[in-house]
Amino acid sequence: MGKKRSGPSRRTCQGLHSNQMLNRGYAYSTIISGKYRGQTLLTHLASLYPHSTAQAWQQKLDNGEVTLDGVTAVGSESVTLGQTLVWNRPPWIEPDSPQHFEVLFEDPHLLAVDKPGGLATLPGGGFMENTLLRLVQKQTPNANPVHRLGRATTGIVLFAKTPQAASGLFANWNTPKIQKIYRALAQNIAQHDTYEILTPIGLVPHPLIGSVWAANPSGKPSKSLAKVISRGTGTTTFEVSLNSGRPHQIRIHLASIGHPLVGDPLYGLTGQPLENLPGLPGDGGYFLHAQYLKFHHPITGSQINLEAALPSGFPLH
After folding, report:
1. Three-state secondary structure call for residue 47
2. Average pLDDT for 100-125
3. Which residues of 4-18 are buried (b: 16+ CB within 10 A; e: fewer)?
4. Residue 239: is its pLDDT beyond 80?
5. Which pLDDT value is given to residue 17?
6. What angle do CA 12, 15, 19 make, to 5 degrees?
7. Cα(83)–Cα(48) distance, integer angstroms
8. Strands (DSSP E) along 95-207, which ranges?
9. CB neighbours of 118 closer than 8 A, spacing ≥ 6?
């Protein structure tokens, strides 16, 4: 059960809407950069958003969904540096996702919740309303997340309820002052008991979405410490502490040392996307849990030790 210093007892909060929901649509906006000067708008859209074919984009243009500098576009325009391109995506029915979370800690400054697997933390990737942010803000409108977890990742997400708390946490987030410890089920049997992983993380090509974060020698410096908890039949359970906060860091780092997460549809043995039909970053199937978060309260200075119990279904050796 969740350990806490103050605040109400751990409780479950239920969302106010059903899973199948029609959202309000979304305007995706981008500024044309110089390297695309002279491309037709249709060609540019198909390369910028490769999830849809040129034919599909032409249909969206014909439907009046795209504007260039505020003018409804037809697709044959040549794009130029500095233009504002907006795709007004019509409302769509979002995929099912869990509509509940558990409160681990709450006081006037902070809120910590236990996020279920399958619920996006923030809007994006097809989810605008079915997100932890929207569910939390229905009950605590001034709460904003200090960090995010991947959609399939479970466990602790910390929200700040005041600007002062947020600035104090942001200042220390990627320092040893804030301990972030995860449990991960990985492929293959580890040869060592501990690993310091320093694989740089940067963008690499992805066939469906253009680019994705992965192991990249010219990427940003990153650091994880992985400790073996147990070894199973062809698997290893690791406890991983983060010393930096790159996207998908644990999935990439463990894969880069030969231990991709069991069931990860995206990352292979090198920390790169799988060569044959890699999945999308939000696809599930793997086991990764944000189990512990330890820090000093940014306002009161008191020690906060949070724990989110392993979810049912997380394999135990």
Report:
1. helix
2. 91
3. beeeeebeebebeee
4. yes
5. 44
6. 125
7. 14
8. 100-106, 110-115, 144-145, 154-160, 179-187, 194-197, 201-206
9. 97, 98, 151, 152, 284
Which residues are 102's β-sheet partners?
12, 114
Strands 144-145 and 154-160: antiparallel
Q: Residue 1: is its pLDDT beyond 80?
A: no
Average pLDDT, integer, range 92-120: 90
Token pair, residue 199, equals 């694989």
- How far apart are the C-alpha atoms of 112 and 159, rounded to whole Å? 6
What residues does 155 pair with on adjacent strands? 115, 290
Output the pTM of the full model.
0.76
Residue 186 · residue 236 · CB < 8 Å = yes
Dist CA 296 CA 293 (whole Å):
10
The partner residues of 306 in beta bridges, in order of sequence, read 293
Residue with tokens 């006081």: 107
Q: Which long-range contacts (CB under 8 A, 24 or more apart) does 263-268 make?
A: 263/287, 266/212, 267/214
Which value, to the nearest 10 degrees, does the dihedral of the CA atoms of residues 290, 243, 265, 291 take? Answer: -10
pLDDT of 82 strictly over 70: yes
Question: What does the mean pLDDT of the chain come to?
Answer: 88
**Token match 């229905």: residue?**
138
| Helix runs in the chain, H state only | 41-48, 54-62, 132-139, 163-172, 249-256
Q: What is the dihedral of CA 309, 310, 312, 314, to 10 degrees?
A: 180
Section 256-269 average pLDDT: 96
